[in-house]
Amino acid sequence: MTRGPTLSAHRLSRPPGRAAIPTLPEQPRVPSPALEGFNGAPADEAHRTLLTCLNSLRWARSIAEHRPYPTPDALLAASDEAAYDLTAADLAEALAAESLPALPEDAYGAAHTALRAAHAAYESRFGHAFVLYLGDTPPAETPDHILVAIRSRLTNDPEREREVAAEELRRLARGRLVTHLRGAGL
What burial letters (b/e) apply to 47-75, b meaning 16+ CB within 10 Å? Predict the structure, then answer.
């Protein structure tokens, strides 16, 4: 079998003054005083701040060591990434510092009793505090939301619950970090 003629290799010429891949116009960077304060804080201060968001030495160290962050979104993405990288020991460390989410002061006594009993059952089954990111849950719905979540998660096997708790810790850390930045003027 004979092959037909082939074309010789050639390079496409680039028109003068034009890039092969167009660049996007640079977006103006809006300064964030809170982020600049976090980025410029001494390492031990940044580390302490981060530990109030999630009590994991590995998580806090990872985020503090990668400063400066160009935007709040970059900091939150780093927070998420560091949370996904936590080992079982790191999760245990973080969970040990957590407690049952606070109830609104006007919550009725039966809600406190039911939550204490559900939390005790959860701790007995899984060996750590129940964690739940409440986000924008209205305070009046907090007791019911927590109770439903505890009862639902009590049916998880320990491995599945570890995954759920890790995700809730990630969400808590992110929410606390946002709250800290907003409190500092974000």
Answer: bebbbebbbbebbbbbbbeeeebeebeeb
Q: What are phi and psi of 72, to 5 degrees?
A: -60, -35
pLDDT at position 3 over 50: no
What pLDDT was estimated at residue 7?
40
Task: Return the CA Rg of the chain.
Answer: 25
Cα separation, 178 vs 93, whole angstroms: 22
* CA–CA separation, 135 and 175 (whole Å): 7
pTM: 0.77
**Residue 133 half-sphere exposure toward CB, CA atoms < 13 A:** 18
DSSP code per residue over the chain: -PPPP-PPP-PPPPPTT--SSPPPPPPPPPP-HHHHHHHHS-HHHHHHHHHHH---HHHHHHHHHTPPPSSHHHHHHHHHHHHHT--HHHHHHHHHT--PPPPPTT--HHHHHHHHHHHHHHHHHHSS------TT--GGGHHHHHHHHHHHHTTS-HHHHHHHHHHHHHHHHHHHHHHHHHHTT-
